[in-house]
Amino acid sequence: MAENKKAFVLGPGFVGREVIDLLRHEGYSVTTIVRRDSAKEEFAKDGVKAVKGDLEDVELIQDLASESDVVFHTATADHLASAEAILEGIRIRNRKGQQSIYLHQSGASVLSDGTSNIANPKVVSDNDTSVIDALPGRAPHRSIDLAILRAREDFDPNAKMFIMMPPIIYGSNKKYGRLSIQAYMLIVKSLEAGTSALNLTNPYFFCENGEISWRDLAALIGRDLHKNGKVESPEPRQIPSSEWTDLFGEFTPAVVGCNARNKADRLRELGWSPRELDVAKAYESEDLPILLKETEFSRSGLTLS
């Protein structure tokens, strides 16, 4: 148990809320940032300190990072200022000789190869740092990844910083309808225990549960929506660029079209293995029943991962 240890989770949403529960289970005192007073009250009931603010409150983020033994950034993979604020907070701790662990959630779309109609035979392992290090700075999420890599070179070993690159984030749990991610806590526990199995020079972690092509996923969706009378044809069709605004705008090819094949070898070497449903099974048993009950669909703020 992590008695008297403090953790700061930036982004208590789909992934972050689950991280908070896992940290609380391990005995951490947890702080997060929320935008609504009602959310502060909700977290207070669970024993979590919630401070009102947002990603632009860089001084607040820096202060909370400087006061915390463990920091998670799960809000977005594309907000440089908030990530830099965390790094500045860790710098303060580093100068005092205090230990810090920082896990930043990036995304496997950083591997996107720009193709959308051909499956790339190359599967990247997170043990192959040379391939990941060679990714261009223009790749999705890469500007923040590079800022963290530069900080790793500047700070002494008391600051342990890693980049988690999950693929499609999907599924739900009974309590929140959100993703379960045991991998994060496994890394933290390994770091605190000083396990020799963890290569501290490698900053990258993938986290996958097998593979599925976007066309195969579209075919599943088409099949079930057609069977339930929601669409006229079950056949997948290519989405023209004129309709990308209905999805993720200019990021659409990278988010739901390109190859980003990877293998979570490092986590498996630590004893981790995926226990939840894969994408197809989670869609059929969790997402589809909810979608079929909806009469109207609306888009809210989406975090690209």
Q: Which terms summarize this structure?
A:
disordered C terminus, 7-stranded parallel sheet, alpha/beta, 13% strand, 11 helices, two-stranded parallel sheet, 305 residues
Summarize the structure.
This protein has 305 residues and is of the alpha/beta class.
Summarize the structure in words.
This protein is 37% helix and 13% strand. It is an alpha/beta fold and 305 residues long. The longest helix is centred in the first third of the chain and has 16 residues, at 80-95.
Largest sheet properties = 7 strands, parallel
Q: Approximately how much helix is present in the residues? A: 25-40%
Question: Treating each run of at least 4 consecutive H or I residues as one helix, how many helices?
Answer: 11
Structural class: alpha/beta
What fraction strand? 5-15%
- How is the largest sheet built, in terms of strand order? 3-2-1-4-5-7-8
Radius of gyration equals 20 Å
Low-confidence stretches: 178-193, 298-305
Q: How many DSSP E strands?
A: 9
Could you say which overall geometry the principal axes of the C-alpha atoms support? globular
- How widely separated are the two ends? 30 Å
